[in-house]
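Page 42, continued from yesterday. The earlier attempt failed because a stray header line got pasted into the input along with the sequence. Redoing it now with the clean sequence only.
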Amino acid sequence: MAALIVDGPKSATRTFLFAHGAGAPMDTPFMDRVAKGVAASGIRVVRFEFPYMQRRRETGKGGAPDPPRVLMQSFRDAIREAGGKGLVIGGKSMGGRIASMVADEAGVLGVVCMGYPFHPPGKPEKTRTKHLEALKTPTLILQGTRDSFGLPADVAAYKLSRAIRIEWIEDGDHSFKPRVRSGRTEAENVDAAIALVAEFIAARKNL
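This time it went through. Structure tokens are written below.
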């Protein structure tokens, strides 16, 4: 396991294990902003990297994400490494998807997905939703209304567990960035997402 990035108080009663997306590491401006924003609410936020991203960092070369089984095991390892009380897991895009795939077995308090990749852009028939039909762990999915990985019309047609709550970020893309003509700013959308995440985590009850 590579070094973790930890924000927030050590004495926090809630810990959020926050994973990166497929294309960028754990210390991007988006990941930094969300982690520090959630931590400002008194929540301990822990970031880690999947093996393929560690290799990219070490070698300076690209490379595709690891197979799902490797990503899932990496998330399990990170759960053990992070420790902490009142654990909620999640991530950006792929990180959130993998979190949702290990959540029930891990017995965590909740899952947060920021921009869930319901399907590849332009390929709505290739859904990544089967496991979401039976998910038991309380889950918050934050999705931009312009997210090419899952538009409102797409998501409305899916059979999803009643444990899943979806909040739409107005005019946001996959990273919640709106168009200028929307009258909203990227900062406003990200801050709205941070507030929803912090509220969701704080509301989780210990098992």
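Notes: The CA atoms of residues 176 and 190 lie 6 Å apart.
Reminder to self: strip header lines before submitting.
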